[in-house]
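Run log // design_07
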């Protein structure tokens, strides 16, 4: 009896670990895809990813989903290339995943091309069967990249 209970507990723990690992890989892939969609100005895919209540925090201010999509579509901010240097271990809290990326972002802001080192915080929430981005926040790093 004890062996079967221990077996069930072990199976549950292994299953939970596998689910967490799959979630981590899914979010890392989604994050990587998101950077490419931003570079491509693919507002259709981004519009599906961004939750309607999502917030975006930049060096110049913060705003919601519709404004972020307008900025990307118009090219006011063109996220040309995100070099991802490090992805910290994601934090999973129930149906929410927090992902931190240390990146160098090459972008065109207005008419100026700029490159900045950032720690980017991405918050994803599982809504039904889909992951939605709830927040994207850029914190400029002052030290060497």
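design_07 sequence
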């Amino acid at each position: 009896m004890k062996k079967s209970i221990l077996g069930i507990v072990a199976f549950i723990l292994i299953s939970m670990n596998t689910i967490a690992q799959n979630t981590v890989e899914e979010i890392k892939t989604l994050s990587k895809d998101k950077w490419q969609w931003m570079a491509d100005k693919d507002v259709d895919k981004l519009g599906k990813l961004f939750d309607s209540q999502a917030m975006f925090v930049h060096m110049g201010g913060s705003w919601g989903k519709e404004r972020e999509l307008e900025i990307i579509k118009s090219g006011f901010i063109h996220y040309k290339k995100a070099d991802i240097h490090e992805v910290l271990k994601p934090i999973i809290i129930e149906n929410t995943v927090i992902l931190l990326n240390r990146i160098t972002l090459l972008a065109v802001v207005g008419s100026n091309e700029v490159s900045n080192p950032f720690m980017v915080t991405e918050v994803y929430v599982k809504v039904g069967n889909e992951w939605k981005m709830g927040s994207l926040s850029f914190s400029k790093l002052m030290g060497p990249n």
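The longest strand covers residues 112-127.
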